[in-house]
Every structure is written in structure tokens, then in C-alpha cells.
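lol ok so funny story. i was supposed to be doing the assay writeup but got distracted and ended up predicting the structure for this chain instead. priorities right. anyway since i did it might as well share w the group, maybe its usefull for someone
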Amino acid sequence: AFHGTESGGEITLQSADLNDPPLINPNFLSHPFDRHIAIHSVRETLGFLHTPSLAKDQIRLAAGPKGDGDDEILDYVRNTGTSMWHPCGTVKMGKAEDEGACVDTSFKVVGLEGLRVVDMSVAPFLPSAHTQAIAYQIAQTASEKVVAEYR
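and the output, tada:
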């Protein structure tokens, strides 16, 4: 699993019809750093699998790139890689003067009444850990803000 990637995807509306699902493009491996990490990771893993202590018990690898070149390794990653589907950072949170923010620091959706976003989409990046603990912290922080607002 790659954490701390630099590639950024996008979610856009397919149409004005609420029944149409959004168009989701995760844009995996679009940043050069992510491609470098993918190639290096596969190369290191293959090197480990080819050590004498492991190679002596192998007939062949069940899967892997067609060759040792960067392009072949990257093709393999593009064709076999997938997401753990823990997207986050899809709704930017920011201060009132941040024109790019969709949610303010009280988790309220900018420009709408009575709607808050309280989930991993407001996290600024995918943590290098399971997302559940961070989701709990986001919920705790939001609940404290809501309680303070209605006291």
C-alpha cells in the first residue's frame, strides 16, 4: 500500500440529475513521485523474493511484471494495482477567506444552511494508518463544535 501519495484525483458531477452517480477519477500514479515509489517498491519486493533463501523453494512467481524495466514495472502496477478505497481529502476545509474551501472550520458546508460534512473527506491527506481513529477524532471535534454552538 502506498501512503502519502502526491497524485490527486477529482470528483465531478455527471449532470444536474441527482440520480446520476458522480464521475470519479482517482488519477492514480499521475505524479512522478508516485510512479518512482511504485517502481522502486516492486523492484525491492522482487529483489527480496529472489534472495537465495526464498528462491530455492520457488518454481516461478505467480505474478509480476513482464520484465525488469521501469516501463514494464509501471505497466504491471497500473494493470494490477487497486485502491483500498479509503478516500479522504475530497472536501477542502478552510477558513472563511479561503475561496477554495467547501467546508468551514465548524464543518459547515459553505453557502448552505443546516448541512455539515463530518467524515474523512475533510481530512487533508490520507494518513499512514487506518482511517478509523482519525474519523473518530473528526467526529469528536465536530460534535464538540455543535454542542458549543447550541449551548
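The mean pLDDT is 91. The radius of gyration is 21 Å.
back to the writeup now i swear
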